[in-house]
């Protein structure tokens, strides 16, 4: 159907937790925070704007891999189905932004990550059989 897929870049705001629901399926949930930044020409520096929080749900294998790979404060890129719902608590109404994750990865613009295929942890590392990359020409001074 017409799902709204979005990509959100931010930091893990809560430790990922896995729960088993009544049907027996496992889901890993965490909050993702993203803060806008803009250049302030008067101050000559970057300034932070408002922070948005997203509740992220990752099901099945994706959720299991998130639980094993992602920690509090780490920078992520999350793609998922966006749902906005209205809720009420203590007489106050508010909006909740939820992402049902389709794909999650570390933001490699801000750090390094190592990828391991599922089930490969007990196997010996395989040699790299790709052809060598072509040598880059040195830039002229």
Automatic annotation (TrEMBL):
Tell me the PROSITE patterns matching this sequence. Answer: SSB
Which Gene Ontology MF annotations are present? Answer: single-stranded DNA binding
Q: Which Pfam families match?
A: SSB
Asked if the keyword Glycosyltransferase belongs to this entry, the reply reads no
Query: Could you give a single Gene Ontology term from the biological process aspect?
Result: DNA replication
Q: Which UniProt keywords apply?
A: DNA-binding
Family matches, as InterPro entries? NA-bd_OB-fold, Primosome_PriB/ssb, ssDNA-bd
Highest taxon of the lineage: Bacteria
What is this protein's record name?
Single-stranded DNA-binding protein
């Amino acid at each position: 159907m017409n799902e709204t897929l979005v990509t959100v870049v931010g930091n893990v705001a809560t430790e990922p937790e896995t729960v088993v629901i009544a049907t027996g399926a496992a889901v890993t949930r965490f909050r993702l925070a993203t803060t806008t930044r803009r250049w302030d020409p008067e101050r000559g520096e970057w300034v932070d704007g408002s922070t948005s929080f997203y509740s992220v749900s990752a099901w099945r294998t994706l959720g299991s891999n998130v639980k094993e790979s992602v920690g509090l404060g780490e920078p992520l890129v999350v793609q998922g189905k966006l749902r906005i719902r209205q809720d009420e608590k203590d007489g106050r109404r508010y909006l909740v932004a939820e992402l049902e994750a389709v794909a999650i990865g570390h933001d490699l613009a801000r750090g390094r990550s190592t990828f391991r295929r599922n089930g490969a942890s007990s196997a010996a590392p395989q040699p790299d059989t790709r052809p060598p990359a072509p040598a880059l020409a040195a830039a002229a001074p």
